[in-house]
């Protein structure tokens, strides 16, 4: 009986030990590695919105209102000429725009003292300019002819007779500027051009309107043959300068046709 109990106890102990022993099938140890949650910080790349506000090159058209200050120089007002004394010998006044202001002026010749002749220009605004023509006993009374713009400056030069010959009339010229009438010269002396004709000599004046004045001339050669031409003079201010001219041959009719004053509407008195 006692032997049987011992065997039972032994069998229970062996069973208990078998239950605690490692099983033959080794279960791979499941290593639960804690999930490493690597929280990568969200790199919020805020692309700095480079808002290139194209500096609106608003080309603001600046309207420059040009205030033009008128700098027109007022016309020169010339002093009034004194009244002519009683007994003055005068020749008829003729017209012309001698100061270039677009208004018609007047011009006359007069003798206020013995053997002294003068030119007077009377401007449209009432002023005047006087100039000596000549003095002396043997002097033909000068006559006013009129005006023609020889040099193209807008003001007409004064034409006046300053002498005469057997078959010619001598003409002098004046330039009017700044209230003064100045005798036009050539080679340092008062310029005198002749208009007229004889059998042996022909002379005249022509104004082509290009800033010059021509001395026309022809000389008798033989049997209805004349030789001559045109001698041009350039007018600058109150000075005439001679330039080479053109020579030509003429018959008598052609030569005598040169004996004229051919400057606009001017005519010999």
Q: Give the amount of beta strand, in percent.
A: 35-45%
Span between N and C termini? 197 Å
Pick out the low-confidence regions.
1-70
Q: Mean pLDDT, nearest integer? A: 79
Please tell me what the overall shape is: globular
String of helices and strands:
HEEEEEEEEEEEEEEEEEHE
Largest sheet: 13 strands, mixed
The secondary-structure class comes to mainly beta
Question: How big is the Rg?
Answer: 60 Å
Could you characterize the architecture of this molecule?
This protein has 269 residues and is mainly β. The protein has a domain at 89-262. Helix content is 9%, strand content 38%. It is built from two helices and 18 strands. The strands form two sheets. Strands 6, 7, 8, 9, 10, 11, 12, 13, 14, 15, 16, 17 and 18 form a 13-stranded mixed sheet that branches. Strands 1, 2, 3, 4 and 5 form a five-stranded antiparallel sheet that branches. It starts with a helix and ends in a 7-residue tail after the last strand. Mean pLDDT is 79; it is low at 1-70.
Question: What can be said about this structure in brief?
Answer:
The chain is mainly beta.
Structural descriptors:
mainly beta; 18 strands; single chain
Q: What is the topological layout?
A:
Blueprint: H1 2-20, E1 89-90, E2 94-96, E3 105-113, E4 116-122, E5 128-135, E6 144-148, E7 157-164, E8 168-177, E9 180-183, E10 185-186, E11 189-190, E12 193-197, E13 201-206, E14 212-220, E15 226-236, E16 239-242, E17 246-250, H2 252-256, E18 261-262
Parallel strand pairs: 10-16, 13-18
Antiparallel strand pairs: 1-3, 2-3, 3-4, 4-5, 6-7, 7-8, 8-9, 8-12, 10-11, 12-13, 13-14, 14-15, 15-16, 15-17
